[in-house]
Amino acid sequence: MRTVRFGVIGCGVMGREFVSAAARWCHLPDMRVRPEIVALCNRTLSPQRIDWFKANAPRIRQVTDDWRNLLDNPDVEAVYAAVPHNAHQEVYCAAISAGKHLLGEKPFGIDKEANAAILKTAAAYPGCFVRCVSQFLFIPAVQRIGRMLEEGAFGRIIEANVGFLHSSDLNPSKPINWKRTAAVNGQYGCMGDLGPHVMSVPIRAGWRIRTVRAVLSNIIKERPGVAGGTAACDTWDNATLLCEATDGVSDDVFPLTVRTQRISPGQTNNWYVQILGTRTSVRFSTRQINTLEILEYDGGEQSWRSIDMGHEVAYPSITPRIHQFGLCDALLQMWGAYLHELDGGQLPTRFAGCARPDETAVFHKLFSGALLSHAKSTSVHL
User: Fold this and answer.
1) Which fold has domain 2-135?
2) Is the pLDDT reported for residue 372 higher than 90?
3) Domain 139-320+356-381: top CATH class
């Protein structure tokens, strides 16, 4: 089995999730390639955090607080970069220019200009395999929806609704973090943080967005500061986008609503998709991650039915198909997809691959249009 040696830049939640996925690689018995984490970079090298990584990724041989040192390491073939949005352009471009394969976190650049710079660098180094995270695509119900889209099962699309709702910022006493400051998170606010996940299905489906009308909300404008006192929260907490879309094949127009909310009472981490069609309709939410609701219409009675999806995955797992699936499994599937494609493997379906660089440009175009739409209180043509 081929081994790809990785460096991890950023030791937060997602860096730890990668270590966990690598430790569970035996769950993917058909893989011809596996990751090995050999280098680690974090701005602050707290012993407690670093010790956790070393204990769970024992082949780590380099620990540094400067990502440039990691990129200079000839043992590192590929990089997983989970850094704040304002660092995406510098770190991603430097990693690609150093000849490293890259899986980068969303939104793949703090703004449209940064995204364009990353894509330009990727195009200049075609030998580097570059992708963006998109773990929600790998949930079994979403994989089933993807196959239905490929097969044209919906008929004419009547409308579609996608969103990512959680309540992480509902408490006004929660101290400020980098995701609540435009200088680090970017002007997109919640759209840049949550929106790429939300747009993974519409973009991979090939839908084209013609116009957007956006309503953005900055609900809690101040929070406790890190050093005491209060600090300004100058990013958008919630966003609702009404888009005019087509299916990418016909000129038939349908409404697509996109909702990203950090302040959504009653939610925890709810990613959802709903597609209503003339022949078939579907509903899915991570609140019931193993359930897909389908309505098939042939002119008779209408009735929603629920399917317990179990472990119906794109990349075979040792977990039996009748067992339940979780988000940690989606991350393992995403990493499996990344290494499978890096190794030259053919994607089993259109929806079984990580987000491509050109796809990241689509949501940057949408979010930039949404900012303009909100500022002018009007619909914006894309």
Assistant:
1) Rossmann fold (3.40.50)
2) yes
3) alpha beta
